[in-house]
Amino acid sequence: MRSSYKLIFERSREGRRAYDMPELDVPCACGTIPEGMRAVSRLDLPELGEVDLVRHYTNLSRRNFGVDNGFYPLGSCTMKYNPKINEELAAMFNSVHPRLDADMAQGCLRLMKDTEDMLCEICGMDAFTLQPAAGAHGELAGLMHIRAYHEHRGDTARTTIIVPDAAHGTNPASAVMAGFKVKEIKSAPDGGVDLDALRAAVGSDTAGLMLTNPSTLGLFERNIKKIAEIVHNAGGLLYYDGANLNAIMGIVRPGDMGFDVMHINLHKTFSTPHGGGGPGSGPVGVKSHLMPFMPVPVLKEDEDGMIVPDYDRPESIGKVKSLYGNFGVIVKAYCYIRSLGGRGLKEASENAVLNANYIMHRLRGAYGIPHDRTCMHECVVTPGELVDYGVHTSDIAKALIDRGYHPPTIYFPLIVHEAMMIEPTETESRETLDEFVDAMLDIAKVAKTDPGAIHAAPVTTPVGRPDEVAAARKPIVKYW
Description:
With about 475 residues, this protein is α/β, with parallel strands linked by helices. It folds into three domains: about 1-65, no CATH class; about 85-340, Type I PLP-dependent aspartate aminotransferase-like (Major domain) (Aspartate Aminotransferase, domain 2); about 345-475, Alpha-Beta Complex (Aspartate Aminotransferase, domain 1), CATH 3.90.1150.10. Helices cover about 35% and strands about 10% of the residues. It is built from 14 helices and twelve strands. A hairpin with a 5-residue loop joins strand 8 and strand 9 (about 305-310).
């Protein structure tokens, strides 16, 4: 039976308090607030006793699903386990004020400069900025570099960014925000970029190509060097979406593939918590020909060995984030990189790829495999013949919830009908993978013998299946 749930306002009873503020022991400043800015009515806040307040939020937290209490196979999101020591070390910097003078924050600045240098080595880039707040923000900053590069050369006719149909949805959105037009190209039958379509798409208006490698299909782009040649010969630049870097770090570098600019999701590849809106971090790396356009300030070491912020950058795209970015996330990534080292980063990627291929191998036969070749850190499967029994991807996702698992990414990538994108990451054990696969195989078995049971899922959650069409068309966004 599903439990009933009351909102905190429904639990409110007038006159109850969970905490009493101490009496004011300084002069009241209420009279200094301009009359037009003063509240004219009492705040409508819930009133509860302490025990009821604690129980309310504790019960809410127990209904949340996270990587600390279960397997989280969201494809492309890299929901790897986050080492708690990184949290402890990041907490050591909690008392550092972000507006300290550079000579009083040398430890923080040195940590950031070292992180930039390590990212350059990992990715084959010449410089990095840690300012962007997240992946999509990094995309925007990277595209601003591309635009500044062409404008600085007087090549203002380059107004188009080419985006494969297997790209992340943020790619075309970021390109438009950066002031570009978007031209989509289709994928080849093997899931890679169609070279003939790319050749037909490039021209004098081509500013660049945005590419994820491995792609959202979980496949490594075999023709990446040829792709880079086609784009560069047309006068464009190559942008690397680093969302899937977890498959290749320590093995191959985007800079060596021919990419001119890229972003990294520190909160994914380098194991710092993400989700729920942040905080994230999307550092941008560039080759030397794009370094003049990097956002200010650029961190550099002076003749005395001090790390100082450099604002004297006349060709800079400007500042893209307040202060130096989300510093706490950067600290956690620094700890992750230093604790693993180059050999450990490579092993993490190898294990991520091994785990994804293991899942794909075990699901073969029970589920459809749209591109049945070695995948990278994630695999894409479909319901296959289960649709003949009326069971679709959304049904399988709901049934997984009843079996204790967060569903994988569903209906993405868009170019695969009924897609399920599964990314186990390197942090899951074989036992966990086997239990997840067994749940998937059980769902496939039940779908053929009792599809109604799958259509009813989930039955173990406080809320079952809402009317998703009505929720999308007529959303109720407030309680009263």
